[in-house]
Amino acid sequence: MSATTKRTPSDFAAARVRNLAPSPTLAVSDKARQLKAEGIDVIDLGGGDPDFITPEHIRRAAIDAMNAGDTHYVASAGIPALRRAIAEKLRADNGIVVEPMGGVVVTPGGKQALFEAALALIEPGVDVLVPEPAWVSYVPMVELAGGRAVPTPLDPDDNYRLTREALETAVTPASRVIIVCSPNNPTGRVFERDELATLADFAQAHDLLVFSDEMYEKILYDGRTHTSVATLDGMAERTLVFNGLSKAYAMTGWRLGYVAGPTPYISQIAKVHSHSATCATSFVQAAGVAALTGPQAFIGEMVAAWDRRRQAVSSGLSAIPGIACSPAEGAFYAFADVRGTGMTSAEAADFLLREAHVAVTPGVAFGEAGEGHVRLSFATGDTALATAVERIGAALAQRV
Ligand SMILES: Cc1ncc(COP(=O)(O)O)c(C=O)c1O
Q1: Parallel, antiparallel, or unpaired: how do β-strands 175-181 and 209-213 relate?
Q2: pLDDT per residue over 175-225, tens digit each?
Q3: Topology of 56-293 in CATH?
Q4: Which among 25, 181, 246 is the best mutation to test ligand 1's pocket, defined by most ligand atoms within 8 Å of the CB?
Q5: pLDDT per residue over 115-155, tens digit each?
Q6: HSE on the CB side for 134, CA within 13 Å?
Q7: 3-state secondary structure of 355
Q8: pTM of the model
Q9: Which of 26, 73, 248, 249 could form a disulfide with 218 if both were Cys (CB 3.0 to 4.6 A apart)?
């Protein structure tokens, strides 16, 4: 370009961002918010936000910290009390041993932890396996870091089980990282013992680092338990655990998460963190200590409410011709199979917003393997959910 030709704004957009779409789940919620502002009674099942307020003792800890003058920068990787509380939580809940002062970075949300890890450990020439359906931000994060995301489709008709065959089909000589999520967003699947063993064997056979997103570990149904892949033989040294307080403590708006693992990897991530976030908010970290070390009964109460809603949603949706929806094993999403309606997932999501005034996320937002499905969050009130299911049934009945 000559110096006399004026650049357009798109000339200024970096190539890595120019074709990047904003988060589709946030886009669904934005659209729902816009329709609500126009006076339309939309039920938004697009987001992933617990419908509970953060417990009082956690709010109080933040207020007390703020009033005590805890309003300054703090240690970049996190206040020592929180890093110790996280290391203790990982030991007691998960059987994972990390160095509190070298093996943990506290971030403004788990999303930021994943992004910083991507920047620190992924680069051009690196392939990253992403079993799909997968949370909407993994692929963009890999690509922003200059790596190549390799979709690893899992089979809806096999309950999205992680199989050695799917992994071996996707792996390339350049594969260095695999990103997994259990309990899974969007499918609600929870890895079984044999899937964890498959993952561990595969990661060791191909010398891969595992990014294990365990954000929903506390949200489990039917007596299931959470096992981190980091605890399988040989895996602690090659697993980074990502977690946060958003879901388990109803703290989405506070932005508090972390990554934990072997110090040599964490120290690379800590550099990115120090040059981007600086630190997570000081008084929010004080609240994080209160959350992790205080009473935990609240989590069980939330999960009991979501359990009730999960069953109501899956039986309500499954009774609608064209939809099949097995109950989630964990997390708070129903991943409904809409193939029987003849619509693609995007068509179904558009139809439901337009005709039923219910906002859902099209499955294709989670990768091609999510096609034919829509994701509905059941972290919302019982009445709104029941109305949403009724409206979906009525709209589809009108359609034929
Ligand atoms: C699978 C998964 N990972 C990570 C995150 C990030 O959560 P946060 O940044 O609120 O900690 C989310 C949020 O929706 C998620 O669903």
Answers
A1: parallel
A2: 999 999 999 999 999 999 999 999 999 999 999 999 999 999 999 999 999
A3: Aspartate Aminotransferase; domain 2 (3.40.640)
A4: 246
A5: 999 999 999 999 999 999 999 999 999 999 999 999 999 99
A6: 27
A7: helix
A8: 0.96
A9: 248
